[in-house]
Amino acid sequence: MTTRPTTDPPDPPDPRRRSLLALALAAGAAPALVGCGTASIAWRADPFGLGVASGCPRADRVVLWTRIAPSAGPSGPVAVDWEIAADEAFGSVVARGRETARAEDGHSVHVEVAGLDPARWYWYRYTAGGERSPVGRTRTAPAPGSTAPLAFAIASCQHWETGRYAAWRHAADEPLDAIVFLGDYIYEGAPRSGRVRRHDGDGPTVTLDQYRARYALYRSDPDLRRAHANFPWILTWDDHEVQNDYANDRGENLAPDFLVRRAAAYRAWWENQPLPPSMRPTGPDLRVYGAYDWGSLARFHVLDDRQYRDWHACPPPGRGGSNTVDVAACPELVLPARTILGREQERWLYDGLARRDVRWNLIAQQTLMAPFTWTKEGRVWTDGWAGYPAARDRLLDAIAERRVDNAVVLSGDVHCHYVCDLKRRVDDPPDRVIASEFCGTSISSEGLPQSRVAGALPLNPHVHYGRSDERGYVSLRLTADRCEASLRAISDAGDANATLRTAARYVVAGGRPGPQRA
Ligand code: FE
Ligand code: CA
């Protein structure tokens, strides 16, 4: 205790200030940091203008994230105090601490808070340089054994220029436990005029600073910020977080230094998402795939089908990237050794699927897994699983042979709502369904003309629903007995105030693979 003259008024009973003081003393009151204790900073803009986020929910922990907005003018390291409470009013703070937001991490903050109770909501906030952040809400997963219900949304593909984020506004209002984001969080392209909104900069994102600026632009959208603030997210990525249609170490324009760009993009992705400090990449590699358990009800097997895949078969002449090819004219396509996940991830996935300790196995990944042909003779787009048929066959064989319980594949990427039966082979009879697939349409990215999709649906009878003219997401509700998927569609992608409707609803009954229209 400090002694003071008795004439001095006593300190107000502010436990937060006391604890900050204690922390500062314990840390040796690191004098190089700005924003220590209650010192205020003359911010040029709201330092928390990019919002708050949480992610990677486990039964005992969650990751908290924020990033000091570049527009606020952070220079050098910034001390950021965080606290997490069991109530919205922060009457019962359960943990608090101080992190340093450093320029080399894009002034991002990643806190993995452990020791939390399972299956409950928490609230968190930050303070830096005298400014307080908005409050975020997050939750932990139930403990093993629990089969309490789970509600979540899958979302993907939020091109800034082609739409506003009304879909996020509606998703943020749903009673969800989590968001599962399946890729194309940013689009790397150069700004183009004549669209709903315009990208920043004067070219595609290539350098770390350019990717950082692009994320800051996307996070400036209030509806996206609210979707982050309301729920923990589980994330994977697709191609546009780096470059359209990249495959492993090869970009679509065959740039010799592609891995330098990939390293910058992966780093910016980590900096800008609620991912643990342990995932911070230092080169062109980053392990993203992993499992997230929701009690004993469900396991998310989150995949990465970009980083380890074989190059596209039969690319356009002189280029990398995808193509639409006649299967008969591209023998390379069907080579048995081709992989979209890489051998190591495949092994990891098959082992995880075989565990039989959860009711639902949710395979959360980037792109359409169900076979999809554009002609009777067989014509496929090579960027999705259709470009890696042997890899798909191996996965479906693994599901069948290991008798995987209630496998549901969750997909994005193609800017189209698809609902599919998955059979071991596409020509198997309709009663041989082994898994279900829900592919969510894009939040805002443009889809193919619906006439093309509608024309191809009769050639793909295992696909029950296909709407490329809907923008939105899929809201899922799981219990021990059923999985209900509601395909949400907004009224107008260009209107931030667009309304929401449920375009279709499907149910998968436990123990009976295959979506049924509800
Ligand atoms: Fe996309
Ligand atoms: Ca994509």
Describe this structure in words.
- The chain contains eight helices and 24 strands.
- With 518 residues, it is of the alpha+beta class.
- The strands form four sheets. Strands 5-2-1-11-10-9-21-22-23-24 form a ten-stranded mixed sheet. The chain has a seven-stranded mixed sheet with strand order 12-13-15-17-19-18-20. Strands 3, 4, 6, 7 and 8 form a five-stranded antiparallel sheet that branches.
- Helix 2 packs parallel to helix 4 and helix 3 packs parallel to helix 5.
- The radius of gyration is 24 Å and the shape is globular.
- The termini are far apart.
- The N terminus is likely disordered.
- The structure holds fe (iii) ion and calcium ion.
Concise summary:
This protein has eight helices and 24 strands.
Protein topology:
Blueprint: H1 15-26, E1 52-55, E2 62-67, E3 78-85, E4 93-101, E5 108-113, E6 121-128, E7 131-132, E8 136-139, E9 150-155, H2 166-173, E10 178-181, H3 208-219, H4 222-230, E11 232-235, H5 258-271, E12 290-294, E13 298-302, E14 324-326, H6 343-353, E15 360-364, E16 379-381, H7 389-401, E17 407-411, E18 417-423, E19 433-439, H8 450-456, E20 463-467, E21 472-478, E22 482-490, E23 500-509, E24 512-517
Parallel strand pairs: 1-11, 9-10, 10-11, 13-15, 15-17, 17-19
Antiparallel strand pairs: 1-2, 2-5, 3-4, 3-6, 6-7, 6-8, 9-21, 12-13, 14-16, 18-19, 18-20, 21-22, 22-23, 23-24
The protein binds fe (iii) ion and calcium ion (CA).
